[in-house]
Structure formats: structure tokens, C-alpha cells
Amino acid sequence: MQRRAAAVYIAFFLVLAAGSYAFIATAQGPSITVENPEYELENSSPVDTGDRAYTVTGVTAPSGEEPGEATLSWTNQSAVFSDTIETNATITYNGTEYITFVANVSDPTEATFRTTPANGSGASLTYENETGQYLVVREYDNGTRELTPYVRDDAFTNLTITEGQTLQYQGNSTTVTNVTQSGLLLEWDGVRVESVSLTEGEPFILNSSQTEGTEYVAHFTSNDTFVLTTDIEGYESQAAQQQRFDERINGLWGIVIMSGLAGVLLTGLAYLPRKE
Q1: Are the beta carbons of 49 and 38 closer than 8 angstroms?
Q2: pLDDT value at position 241?
Q3: Are 85 and 98 in contact (CB under 8 A)?
Q4: pTM beyond 0.90, yes or no
Q5: Would you kindly state where each structural domain of the chain is located, as residue ranges?
Q6: pLDDT tens readout for residues 79-111
Q7: pLDDT at residue 78, as a whole number
Q8: What pLDDT does residue 151 have?
Q9: pLDDT of residue 177
Q10: 5 CB neighbour count, 10 Å cutoff
Q11: Alpha-carbon distance 18 to 173, whole Å?
């Protein structure tokens, strides 16, 4: 009788597991469909938003758990570049080598470019840690050696650079936007290729700024094509349905596993030797 009862329960769990597995094998989850997208794109496709012309420069197809991704690039004709010249740095400006100095004041507004011994002075430069100053070293044929403070040596000249001044520096019309004790901040305009990355299901703004413009969401329809739509609410509703379906499938897998384990356990218990 006990084995018959066990057989009934075993059959129940096996039927439950088989039914759940059959549903998993045959069930088709909901797919996302974008009606009338604003853009249908592939690699090298142009994207004209009105304010800015983009080009698709890369498409990565969805793979496993990884969503699809794409890169849009555009040429910024007035990009702002910046660089810093640190205090005590050696630089070349207009073909001449200088060392930069900034006065030790709370809010400096200018810096000094001082010519270096490399400009044909026949001297060398050394830094004295104890006094915290540069010294010019001259050695003469008679074996004598002369040390003079660099900032007071007449063989070298100063070039004063003021905050707000425009320089021709490294081939660019460059503005000194700020002077601090640590150095000079330089800025200039130029041409730069900018890019924006987009991922399946993540809303993003595509326009002349990252905070103002039209919001889109991307959906990858195949390995190398994707669409952009402004119907974010409709996309997210379909994505939520997909998530609920996946949760149900995961629940059914749990039933298959637990029912199978229960069937195996009951089978083992039913055929244990009986103690008389």
C-alpha cells in the first residue's frame, strides 16, 4: 500500500514537471514591435536631427543577456579644448624655450615666461632645494664656477602673460582663461568628432545638447539594424510584458526542478528496505 501511495505521488510530480516543461518548450514570449519609428538605421546611416547631423559609426548586435548597442558620431566644428601649463614647466613658445613662473600671491592674474639657458647662453640651470630657487651655472676655462639666481640673471629675459590674453600656442589661437599658483589654464576652439552611445531600452536625448532636445529609445530589430522611436511609453509597456513573461517562465522552471527532485526523492524512499 505504501508503495502504491508513493507511486501516485511520484506520478503526480512527474506529470506536473512534464506539463510545466511542455509549456516552456512551446510558449512564445511577447516581442517588442515599434510602429512607425522616426529612424530605421544600420551602420553608416545618416541621422539628421535638424540641429545636428549624426552618422551611425558602430552597431553591436544583442548577444545572450547583453543588449544591442550603437554609436552615433558627429563633427563638432567649435569644440572647446583645454590644457594646463604648470608652474616651473619648460615649454616652447614661438620657437623659444621658456620656464614658467607664477608669483606666490593669493589670486595671481599673470605669469612669467623666462628664457632658458638652452637659448645659447652657454650656461646650465640647476634647482636648489634648500632655497627653493633656480640657479644659473657658468663654468669658465680657468676652472672657476659661477652661480647666479636665475630670476635675476641678465642673460635671460621675461615675457609677461596675463589672464585673458590670446596666444598663438602650438598652432592654435589660445586664450589664457585662468592663472593660479599652480599654472595657466588654456582654452581654444577646434574641430572634434563627438559620439553618443545608445543601448536597447535606455531612453536618451538626441539633439544639440545632452539636456535639451528630443528623447528617443532604441530597439534592435536584427543583428545589424535598429530603430529609434519617441514612443517611449509604448516601448516600456511591451518591455514590461516581456519581463512578466520571463518571470513566469522562471517560475515554471522552478516547478520542473522541484517536481523532479520530489519524484526522485519519493522513488528512493518508496524502495527503502522495510524493517519488520
Answers
A1: no
A2: 63
A3: no
A4: no
A5: 1-35+236-276, 83-192
A6: 999 999 999 899 999 999 999 999 888 899 999
A7: 87
A8: 86
A9: 96
A10: 11
A11: 75
Q: Which three cell numbers stand for residue 197?
A: 552611445
Residues (pLDDT < 70) of the chain are 1-31, 208-212, 239-276
272 CB burial (10 A radius; 0-12, 13-18, 19+) = exposed
Q: What is the pLDDT of residue 19?
A: 57
Look at residue 274 in the predicted model and tell me its pLDDT.
Answer: 57
Q: How many CB atoms lie within 10 A of CB 20?
A: 21
Transcribe the chain into DSSP letters. Answer: -HHHHHHHHHHHHHHHHHHHHHHHHH--------SS-SEEEETT-EEE-SS-EEEEEEEE--BTTBPPEEEEEEEEEEEEEEEEEETT-EEEETTEEEEEEE-SSSS--EEEEEE-TTTTTS-EEEEETTTTEEEEEEE-TTS-EEEEEGGG-TTS-EEEEETT-EEEETTEEEEEEEEETTEEEEEEEEEEEEEEEEEBT--EEESSSSSSSEEEEEEE-SSSEEEEES-HHHHHHHHHHHHHHHHHHHHHHHHHHHHHHHHHHHHHHHTSPPP-
